[in-house]
Amino acid sequence: YARLRDATLAIRAGAAFVATNPDRTLPTEVGQVPGAGAIVAALVAATDVTPKIIGKPEPPMLEMALARLGQPRERTAVLGDRLETDILGGRRLGLPTILVLSGVTHEAPGPGCEVCPTWVYDSVRELLLEWRAEMVEIA
Hints:
- This protein is α/β, with parallel strands linked by helices and 139 residues long.
- The protein folds into two domains: 2-53, HAD superfamily/HAD-like (Rossmann fold); 59-138, Rossmann fold, CATH 3.40.50.1000.
- Helices cover 42% and strands 16% of the residues.
- The chain is built from five helices and seven strands, in the order αβββαβαβαββα.
- The protein has helices at 2-12, 36-47, 59-69, 83-92, 124-138; strands at residues 18-19, 25-28, 31-34, 52-53, 78-80, 97-100, 119-121.
- It has a three-stranded parallel beta sheet with strand order 5-6-7, sandwiched between helices. The protein has a two-stranded parallel sheet with strand order 1-4.
- A hairpin with a 2-residue loop joins strand 2 and strand 3.
- Helix 1 (2-12) packs across helix 2.
- The N and C termini lie far apart (57 Å).
């Protein structure tokens, strides 16, 4: 509570309100726990100030990651478990996206979905096994 109180007072006094992402929950081994978005929501409620989101799904952090990779865009995809941040962020950058159903999202979106991934896999393990099999076929 003390940190939430201090952040509220700082924002009300004019501090910049910057958030990394709006994810409401965070998957852990014990289940879904409050994520950055839950804390952001509390601060918005206490301050009436909307934060600047610099991480997913907004481009700045993803563009920095892309530049740091040093790979061509056509050899890069965004992988994530959340449609409204991970997949939306990749789409905003014009990159292919990979949704894994082993985190927050448990069902593939249906036809006509608002934010559709390029590919869907049950898990990162399934993705790696399929890619490994394709690499063996190519070799």
